[in-house]
Sequence to fold (706 residues):
Amino acid sequence: MTLEETRPPTIKTIAQNVGMTANTVSRALRGSGSISPTTRDKILAEARRLGYVPNAAARALVLGSANSLGLVMTNPSNPFYSELFSVIERRSRKDGYLLQLSATEENLQNEESAVDAMLRWRVDGAIVVATQGSDAPWQRLMANGVPMICVNRPLLEVDCELVGIDYEQGAYDATLHLLDSGHWPLVVFEEDLEISTVHSRIAGVHRALGVRGRAAEEVSIVRIESLRDNDSTLPWQPQSAYEEAHRRLAGTPRGTGVIAGNDFLALGVYRAAYELGLSIPEDVGVCGQGDHPFSAFLTPGLTTVRSPVQDIGAAAVDWIMERIRGAPPAPPTHRRFAPTLQVRGSTMARSTG
Amino acid sequence: MTLEETRPPTIKTIAQNVGMTANTVSRALRGSGSISPTTRDKILAEARRLGYVPNAAARALVLGSANSLGLVMTNPSNPFYSELFSVIERRSRKDGYLLQLSATEENLQNEESAVDAMLRWRVDGAIVVATQGSDAPWQRLMANGVPMICVNRPLLEVDCELVGIDYEQGAYDATLHLLDSGHWPLVVFEEDLEISTVHSRIAGVHRALGVRGRAAEEVSIVRIESLRDNDSTLPWQPQSAYEEAHRRLAGTPRGTGVIAGNDFLALGVYRAAYELGLSIPEDVGVCGQGDHPFSAFLTPGLTTVRSPVQDIGAAAVDWIMERIRGAPPAPPTHRRFAPTLQVRGSTMARSTG
DNA sequence: TTGTACGCGTTATCAC
DNA sequence: GTGATAACGCGTACAA
Fold:
């Protein structure tokens, strides 16, 4: 086997073999312009024979676009995001767009390099889950005229198209549900990240408390150490919440309700409660967020706030596609899909007393 | 705001602005060749001022490589693959390589289009989880000289570099553990996909049976309907296993052991057992595969076969990188990492009788 | 140290 | 219907 650095065949190769010009070959392969059926077939046959594959870089260079989308996520092992990715991947593939994916791991520096990569490749659009550390990278992206839509989290100051979830409403619903089924006092478990989703959920809890005339002071907000900004590839997991729940639930009054920022946190609470001899939902009610694939099958089933991931992913791609296809840049919209409360065994109504 | 189709600045733009040649600018930006410090600074300043970003397509065209890797997976919502993606993304980013990702969803046609995309973009290497429907796409990829490594599943007939898990050994260990802790008879739950991982695990079970002198006939293999080949973006989930377990576990003798092909299947078994009034591990022992993030926190904790995902991902990228950096094409190796049995509450030793 | 010339593979605009 | 020719943005030889 010789080590000849053999470049793949080009349209020029085909042209020579069939005694034509590169130009003709180009049109034949692409079906545009006018070509005589005979030459067309001859060219196509030769192309197939050679195993010709068009060079995307060359095409991108002259066309100025690569038919590709940038997808920037924080952490793919978050079930929410992995499902989101699935939807987006499928939908953009259907439209013939390539997906260029990067994970930022809640790290601003990674975010910047992701933007850099998208700029270099002249992506046609970007779908972004921002870390919310700074708007700078995204301003840069938008300043370069790249259509961009935020998913799940808005930017800090800059206004940008957004499609997400009404976390505030979800937490509001969850809180009302816990209160009305007799759970009190409440404990809220959230990751210790300064992101809008966390803030929204806490706001929702407070609104519900106000509506039911409960004192916000009696609700403790517990921040769970996030492992996401370490240099680890650890997936989301319940460990920290489990440890914290052990401490918080030890001397808690019977009937306490727990609101968890995601279902992994809730699962940590489950385990801690079990080890402390507390039964769910009698001694402690638990409500999660996300309806992760495992949640319905826990014992008891986990009451959780379900987000319409599919709709969000679809909406994001659709918006980008419209913009790519020439829709005029309109003032940014913020669309927040309503989550729905999935009531299961973990918050069954308890008899008061 | 005028609709001038304004292309981004190029090195030529910079050159004109500073009164130099494109060539000089090129070297200044890239730090190669020799440039006078003065002009260098002037060029860099102008580049920054313009917000210049090199055009990756143009560079790729002349260099013949795009510094990108193709990653082909079946289903990103599988926790194993999402973690694998995390590792690979991080590691390739560290090496300055872009990741081009596609999901095949166990579908051969998607696989072909993924290969097509990689070929067009002239990716420098490919990391692949094959659907094992046909070798054709991968033969095409390899025939084009693209370094390629299979993860987790080998190809059908063609020999190709592989890094994976010794599923056979894992299932063997799990089976021995179940038998030796008094569980009998056994029921094996596997997805109804014709993939090597499933076959390997079943082989491992049989080997263990042989070693302990148990009759393979008494072990029932239950195939769980896979939702993966539908046109759905459903994540992995326990539903089908749950339904099937309801049927299979109804009249089962006390002490039955269940071996599940992944932890989601195991979770379905958990729920069915609970509803049937069977307690784990007294009435039925359960062993999973994958050690998904939730498994340690179930009640009881799920005994499961843990795969070294990190090692596998790292090994895959490293191998690709070596090949890209010019390592001579050697005969393919098959490296299978040993999984480790995580013994937890779901298979606690039961007193015989 | 800098400039000239050319090539990468493809598409587009014109002639013919 | 087909063929020159130029252009996309950048890198590499080589000459100045």
Q: What stands out?
A: The first strand of chain A starts at residue 68 and ends at 73. Chain A has three domains: 3-54, 63-165+309-337, 167-306+340-347. Chain A touches chain B through 65 residues (CB under 8 Å). Chain A has a mean pLDDT of 93.
